[in-house]
């Protein structure tokens, strides 16, 4: 029997949750059982009670607001505990139409993909301001370049995971799970597909960021942090090369003047260059050490793959489990 659990992270979504639940599919070809899971991230508007009243199968509540990434991770843990074969993540503000869930899970059912992401085609989405669409374009190009494969919509939260793929995720950031889990999926060699979807008009301003600058800066920081976690030597090698190049320039300048018999007045160039080369060497050494630590960490993760960490469950309370 193939079980699908649709998880919905929520923060004060009592007003829109009924739209989300009523829009979810009741049956999908190839799926024998569909259950819903609401993760209440410390809401104060009665979101949990609303979910129970709407007949949600599982409700898990954080005792305090811990952020979207933590709510997503709690949902993954709970869905695996409830023996989900496929997990779909959608939003509590009804951004994603439920009619697309069948298309989202089909590549997993067909055995073609481990992770499927809904491509909102944000650059053509007229619901979004022009500036935000251009930032999406820049973000898509940057993520695709760093990961080395085309990523049409890297920050879409409308996703489907196979049970095996979900079990390999480990969310550590406090901001958002989208970039972090995408990088992890690529690095773990998971088959990823994107399916085109539409999105509903916004029902409220985003609670994830206050400005476009904050959105871009936090997403970039998350991308670089997670990439460094998997490729510390490559990252530090780039930085070391840049520092070495900057160090060679003043040294070449000093040698040029020295060859002309004017080296006495340009010793500071030599000092600056040697300092930059020393820093480049230390950076490369730090990269080698970090790469060794990263390798040991990945080896430990692969050899101790077991029930997922209980760190989320210790801070989340299951309210109900309805069969």
TrEMBL record:
Family matches, as Pfam families: Glycos_transf_2
SUPFAM superfamilies from the UniProt entry: Nucleotide-diphospho-sugar transferases
EC numbers for this chain: 2.4.1.54
Listed PANTHER family: SLR5056 PROTEIN, UNDECAPRENYL-PHOSPHATE 4-DEOXY-4-FORMAMIDO-L-ARABINOSE TRANSFERASE-RELATED
Swiss-Prot/TrEMBL keywords: Glycosyltransferase, Membrane, Transferase, Transmembrane, Transmembrane helix
Broad EC category: transferase
Transmembrane segments: 236-258, 270-290
Every Glycosyltransferase 2-like domain range: 8-168
Keyword Membrane appears in the UniProt entry: yes
UniProt-listed InterPro entries: Glyco_trans_2-like, Glycosyltransferase_2, Nucleotide-diphossugar_trans
The protein's name: Undecaprenyl-phosphate mannosyltransferase
UniProt lineage: Bacteria, Pseudomonadati, Planctomycetota, Planctomycetia, Pirellulales
Top-level taxon: Bacteria
Keyword Membrane: yes
Coiled-coil blocks: none
Gene3D superfamilies: Spore Coat Polysaccharide Biosynthesis Protein SpsA, Chain A
Molecular function GO labels: undecaprenyl-phosphate mannosyltransferase activity
């Amino acid at each position: 029997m193939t079980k699908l659990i649709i998880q919905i992270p929520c923060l004060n979504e009592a007003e829109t949750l009924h739209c989300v639940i009523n829009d979810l599919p009741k049956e999908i070809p190839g799926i024998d059982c569909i259950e819903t899971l609401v993760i209440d991230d410390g809401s104060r508007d009665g979101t949990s009670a609303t979910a129970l009243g709407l007949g949600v199968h599982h409700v898990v509540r954080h005792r305090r607001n811990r952020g979207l990434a933590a709510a997503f991770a709690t949902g993954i843990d709970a869905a695996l505990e409830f023996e989900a074969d496929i997990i779909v993540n959608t939003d509590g503000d009804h951004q994603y139409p439920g009619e697309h869930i069948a298309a989202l899970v089909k590549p997993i059912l067909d055995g073609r993909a481990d992770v499927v992401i809904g491509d909102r085609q944000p650059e053509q989405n007229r619901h979004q301001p022009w500036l935000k669409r251009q930032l999406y374009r820049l973000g898509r190009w940057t993520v695709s370049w760093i990961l080395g494969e085309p990523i049409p919509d890297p920050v879409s939260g409308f996703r489907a995971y196979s049970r095996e793929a979900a079990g390999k995720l480990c969310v550590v950031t406090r901001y958002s799970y989208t970039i972090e889990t995408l990088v992890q999926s690529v690095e773990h060699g998971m088959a990823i597909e994107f399916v085109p979807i539409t999105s509903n008009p916004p029902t409220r301003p985003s609670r994830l960021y206050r400005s476009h600058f904050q959105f871009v800066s936090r997403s970039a920081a998350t991308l670089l942090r997670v990439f460094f976690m998997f490729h510390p030597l490559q990252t530090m090698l780039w930085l070391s090369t840049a520092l070495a190049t900057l160090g060679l320039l003043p040294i070449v300048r000093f040698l040029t003047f020295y060859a002309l018999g004017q080296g006495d007045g340009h010793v500071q160039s030599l000092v600056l260059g040697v300092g930059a080369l020393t820093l480049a060497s230390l950076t490369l050494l730090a990269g080698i050490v970090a790469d060794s630590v990263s390798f040991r960490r990945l080896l430990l993760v692969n050899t101790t793959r077991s029930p997922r960490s209980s760190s989320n469950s210790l801070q989340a309370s299951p309210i109900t489990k309805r069969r």
